[in-house]
Description:
The chain has helices at residues 27-38, 78-86, 88-94; strands at 14-17, 20-23, 44-49, 52-58, 65-71, 98-108, 111-118. By secondary structure, the chain is α+β, with helices and mostly antiparallel strands. It comes from Oreochromis aureus (Israeli tilapia).
Amino acid sequence: SSGAAAHIPPPGQQLPVGEMPVQIPDDSDFCSFREQCLSTEGWTSRYSKGGVTVWGREEDSSTVQKLKMRIVCKDVTAETLYDVLHDTSYRKKWDTNMIDTYDIGRLTVNADVGYYSCYSPAWK
């Protein structure tokens, strides 16, 4: 092949992409993400109804709004829920709020970057 191999830095190091560096996530990044998911400190409940709770958090940048959501799905395994959410062709059939979704790239076997846009039921 005539193409050059892409250089992927070790976990925790950054890879420059244009003007924005991309950091390959390592175990400490996963732990930080998990802590943010479980923590309520700094988060404001914005919606809670029918087993769905949404929290918001103000960020330094006024252009970024950080949200997290928890939903209770009775009689559905975590594996099934993961598959249903990540199967983009099937999701187009059931997710009536989805505008578009696609994969941007895979950083590692357990880390990818994707795009998802949707209509918010609150905005309809």
